[in-house]
Each structure stands twice: as structure tokens, then as C-alpha cells.
Design goal:
mainly alpha; UDP-galactose 4-epimerase, domain 1
Length: 109
């Protein structure tokens, strides 16, 4: 329903762009791993905690679970970038394009 409401505005907003554009779409706030674990615990009633593993351990776990090597490496690259702070950004793109503020996944749930 929400997508149906904002789709015409979103199409119009994107249509106003000329040339090549990169839209950095984010939520309303940065969410840490600890906050994610705690919020999921609160929502589900399960006792979750964050377990620190090395990138090598993580990649091995991905591979052991049958994930293709290219996907495991890409996932590790994403996690490495996150650990270095490259994903701690919040943009106004959702509101700029739709006129609506983004909603936290926890508020949504």
C-alpha cells in the first residue's frame, strides 16, 4: 500500500534528474550491530548477542554453508567496510524523492 501511494511521486522525482545520478538511500539512523541484536531480542523475545569473528572465520563460515566464493568475498568486503565506518551515513534521499521521512525497521516491525 505504501509503495502504491508514493510510487507516482517517486517516478516524477527520479524523472527530474538528468545525466547519471547515484541515490544513496538510507534509513533514518545508523544501526550498530549491538543495537540490531538488542532490537531483535526485544521484538522476538529471544536472547541474542553479538559474536565477534574475524573476516577469515566469517568467510569460512559462508563457504562452509554453501555460499559461492564470490558472494562470500563480497559479503566480507561489505563487513570490512562497515567495520571501517564506511556505512555510517544517513541521507535525506528517501524524503527528497518521496516527501516522506524514512521509517526505522524496528518501528516498522
Amino acid at each position: 500500500m505504501c509503495a502504491e501511494i508514493i510510487a507516482p511521486e517517486l517516478r516524477w522525482s527520479i524523472g527530474q534528474c538528468t545525466g547519471k545520478h547515484i541515490f544513496d538511500v538510507t534509513g533514518p539512523a545508523v544501526i550498530s550491530h549491538n543495537t540490531l541484536a538488542q532490537s531483535i531480542s526485544d521484538i522476538t523475545g529471544l536472547d541474542l548477542s553479538r559474536n565477534l569473528v574475524t573476516l577469515e572465520e566469517l568467510e569460512r563460515d559462508w563457504l562452509d554453508s554453501g555460499i559461492p566464493p564470490s558472494v562470500a568475498q563480497t559479503s566480507n568486503h561489505f563487513d570490512k567496510d562497515a567495520a571501517q565506518g564506511y556505512h555510517i551515513i544517513v541521507s535525506s534521499t528517501v524524503e527528497d524523492l518521496s516527501g516522506y521521512k524514512p521509517v526505522s525497521p524496528f518501528d516498522y516491525l
